[in-house]
Amino acid sequence: MNTKQSRIRRARKTRAKIAAVKAIRLAIHRTNSHIYAQIISADGGTVMTSASSNDKDLRTSLTNGGTVVAAAAVGKRLAEKARGLGIEKVAFDRSGFRFHGRVKALAEAAREGGLVF
């Protein structure tokens, strides 16, 4: 089993648990160049809002989208958008990525922005 298959297996287990409790989820995806985050409805069929380091407004203020600073900016921006929609409580879906570095920075910034998970 390679690294990607292991990550997808971990993600599948997490998503099954989140789907069982019918929670709105904050899903992230990390690449070497950028980080992406989405808030997905409880039924799993609708993306309610999203933010990424590739968004036009964030891209101009960031020098590189693959840094901890960029991840924190994405988390803060996503929390602002979620609060605008009246979303306060979410389940954190890290998509099988380890909770450190950019993933941790995004989560902490989202918590500081008002999201509870």
Q: Based on Cα principal axes, name the global outline.
A: globular
> What is the class in the CATH system?
Alpha Beta
Task: Report mean pLDDT, rounded to a whole number.
Answer: 96
Largest sheet: 4 strands, mixed
- The secondary-structure class comes to alpha+beta
The percent range for helix content is 40-55%
Q: Taking Cα atoms only, what radius of gyration do you get, to the nearest Å?
A: 14 Å
**Strand order within the widest sheet?**
3-2-1-4
Overall CATH architecture: 2-Layer Sandwich
CATH level-3 fold name: Nucleotidyltransferase, domain 5
Compute the separation of the termini in Å: 31 Å
Task: Work out the helix count.
Answer: 4
List keywords for this structure.
117 residues, alpha+beta, Nucleotidyltransferase, domain 5, four-stranded mixed beta sheet
Write a compact overview of the structure shown.
With 117 residues, the protein is of the alpha+beta class.
